[in-house]
Amino acid sequence: MIDSVLDLFKLTGRRAIVTGGGGGIGLAIAKALGQAGALVALVSRTRSRLEAAINEVPNSVAIPADVMTVDPGQLVDQCEAALGGPIDIVVHAAGFQHREPSVDFPVEQWDRLIRVHLTAPFLISQELGRRQLAAGRPANHIFIGSLNNWQSVVPNIPAYAAAKSGIGGVMRALSREWSGHGIRCNGVAPGWVHTELTESLFADPEKSAQIRSRIPMGRLAEPREMASVALFLASDASSYMTGQMLVVDGGWTTS
Fold this sequence. Notes:
single chain; alpha/beta; Rossmann fold; seven-stranded parallel β-sheet; 8 helices; about 15% strand
């Protein structure tokens, strides 16, 4: 029984995987899920960052793994064993950036970016989906998109733009196939958030000023402002929402 609308946001007893959980937006989302009562497996390739992160995230365990190379089945097995049961929520927040003009963009970086931002989220969700469908278990899959889903925001990031454009299609395809079985797939498309992925841009005063001048709210986002939206999508508060990429950009796409 729901006594308060706030009860809809509670995740008590649910188990979540957050890739890229060692820092940035991923860590902020993991904190929100843990604070809402979920048991959280933080996945990151950097063990030292994970060890620091689990001190900030309630009810969390560290799972050192590189989503580019890990076997999805082994990763899910490891997370389920650490959390004591099947996974209810996955958040695909792992990522990195490489900036170089398209005419010079190395194929090796292209392959790595596509693998991290597009292929790995699909393969991990595919593995989880198989298990959740077989068990008749409802679940939430949350993908981190980008303003590049809709527009070319800045130059010199062709692989990132391609991957983020593609992840919206993956999200919609899985939603179309699975939502009738209680597995909802949604996403968050962040605007400008000051994280490691954007550090090189904001280190340039001219570029930083140009970016800020176009944001109607006049400021960058905090990672927690993406986390609250992810919590909404992971919870019963969004129970009739699926196949949607929510733009959280301070008004950038309207300007």
